Amino acid sequence: MAEQGPLAIGATLKVTGPITVSDQDVRRFCELLGETNPLFLEEEAARRGPYGELVAPPSFAVTFRDVGHFADELFRLGKLGFDAGKDIEFVRPIRPGDQITATSRVARIYEKTGRSGPMVFVVVRSTLTNQRGEIVAHVDHRFTALAEFPAEEIAPGSGRDRQ
Amino acid sequence: MTPPFRAVLGEELGPRIVVISREQTRDYARQYRFESARFSDDERARRIGLPGIIVPGNMSLAYLVKLVTDWIGTRPATLVRLSTTYRQLVRPDSPLTLHGVITGAGGDGSVELDLWMENELGERLVTATATVRALPA
Question: Are A88 and A140 in contact (CB under 8 A)?
Answer without folding.
Answer: yes
